[in-house]
Design brief:
21 strands, binds flavin-adenine dinucleotide, 33% helix, 9-stranded mixed sheet, FAD/NAD(P)-binding domain, 6-stranded mixed sheet, alpha/beta, 415 residues, 25% strand, single chain, globular
Length: 415
């Protein structure tokens, strides 16, 4: 690799790295992506495909604390902690708890709201520019409730979101059944979010973006893991699995694997851990739903995709090294079945696990520290926020004013 020819090396070719790479390369910046594996095979491969602009509250929500014991006691519940991982999780979990206090919670909420408010339009413009339209559906999504008590919470939640400028409508059981007739009548009502979307084939989108990036002159180096990074007076020295690179600028976008490299590049230890999530893909179920349906009570989502129905969700704290526990993917079938009128066809289903990059304050780090750009930590919302994050990075690169005020996403908040 002739490393001198690039203006910037991006570490990590997930949806975050890829969107930023296309945004920069199309403005004349010479970009190389260094990807440890294959392009977009990490969290970006298996997520639920939901452009979830309605999710404007931090994961660190005090309201959820009282449900945690019940969730942990239920082996088929949406939350699992590998107790052997607890000592390593503890510092992050402590920070997460501190962020539940009213002031930091409100700060994170405002910052999520600002980012999500621009995310859908950013995706739509980007999709138009790079011919991704066939795989992006803006048909809204549903959040259903199954218990009368949940319906009450859902109603209040919807009113609160409407006041915040996140439009939604409360659907009665019969209106819900008109919109999603395959749902069982145990679904008592739902919020319909018209300004949300979903991606029907994430693989097709990332493949198309890689092709576009290359056609614009960008280079992708797969199986090229960055082992360490050091900022020197001559530039940034990256040691990869096959060589040393002297880079003039670097953008870190290694998702949940960014923590150690961020420390080497900036000296800052970011409170980030991984929330492992699972999906089960049902390839013979393409016709079941025509928009994503999340369940408030069961805490998972069903997204219709070109290659079937994707059941996705759950949070597992077990770190980056422990093997996947695919039972957590398979148990999603039971959850989905309970919401549907007729049996699901689970033949040829495939389970998957991926690493959400989750900071303790639920906000990504989108920043520039001289020659080092940072773009990681998008937790449950990396797909949704990929294009708006790329736009902010491009503005920081060229010294322009970003479309979203970037202060809340700066690294400095962890110094
Ligand atoms: C089950 C599940 C469902 C989800 N659903 C949604 C959803 O519906 N909507 C939404 O918006 N978000 C969703 N998310 C979150 C979203 O998938 C992530 O936030 C997003 O994919 C993060 O993208 P990324 O590019 O930062 O990370 P990744 O996709 O993980 O990419 C990071 C890349 O960096 C590479 N890398 C790592 N270390 C190195 C290194 N040292 N050198 C070189 N390369 C390296 C990795 O191989 C990887 O390809 C979901 C996540 C999960 C797990």
């Amino acid at each position: 690799m002739d490393t001198q020819v690039f203006d910037i090396h991006i570490i990590g070719g997930g949806i975050i790295g890829l969107c930023a790479a296309v945004a920069l390369q199309s403005c004349g910046v010479k970009v190389a992506i260094l990807e440890a594996d294959k392009i977009a095979r990490g969290a970006s491969y298996g997520n639920a495909g939901h452009l979830a602009t309605e999710q404007v509250f931090p994961i660190a929500d005090a309201g959820i604390l009282r449900h945690v014991p019940a969730m942990l006691l239920n082996p088929e519940g949406p939350l699992r902690i590998d107790w052997r991982y607890l000592p390593r999780l503890a510092p992050w979990a402590f920070q997460l708890m501190l962020n539940m206090r009213p002031e930091p919670f409100a700060r994170s909420h405002q910052a999520l709201l600002a980012l999500n408010a621009k995310s859908l339009q950013a995706w739509q413009d980007f999709a138009k520019e790079w011919q991704l339209i066939p795989w992006i559906k803006i048909q809204g999504s549903l959040l259903t409730a199954e218990k009368p008590s949940s319906l009450k919470i859902l109603t209040t939640h919807g009113q609160r979101l409407n006041c915040l400028g996140v439009p939604n409508t409360l659907l009665s059981q019969s209106a819900l059944s008109d919109l999603a007739p395959t749902l069982q009548d145990n679904q008592l009502g739902a919020l319909f979010f018209p300004e949300t979307g979903h991606i029907t084939n994430i693989e097709a989108i990332t493949h198309k973006l890689s092709t576009i990036f290359r056609s614009l002159g960008g280079q992708i180096y797969e199986n090229c893991r960055v082992l360490s990074a050091a900022v020197t007076i001559e530039g940034i020295c990256l040691t990869t699995s096959d060589q040393q690179i002297n880079a003039s600028k670097v953008m870190l976008a290694a998702g949940a694997h960014s923590k150690a490299l961020a420390k080497q590049l900036t000296g800052v230890s970011v409170p980030m851990d991984t929330e492992r999530g699972y999906h089960l893909m049902l390839p013979h179920e393409n016709e079941r739903l025509n928009l994503p349906v999340s369940s408030m009570d069961r805490r998972f989502i069903m997204t219709p995709m070109e290659r079937g129905l994707r059941l996705a969700g759950t949070v597992e704290y077990a770190g980056l090294e422990a093997p996947a526990n695919m039972n957590r993917a398979h148990m999603l079938l039971k959850q989905a079945q309970a919401m549907l009128k007729t049996p699901l066809n689970s033949e040829d289903s495939t389970p998957w696990m991926g690493f959400r990059p989750s900071t303790a304050d639920s906000l990504p780090i989108i920043d520039r520290q001289k020659s080092v750009f940072l773009n990681f930590g998008h937790q449950h919302l990396g797909l949704t926020q990929a294009v708006i994050s790329a736009q902010i990075i491009a503005a920081l690169y060229f010294g322009d004013i970003p479309t979203v005020e970037p202060t809340a996403y700066r690294l400095d908040r962890f110094r």
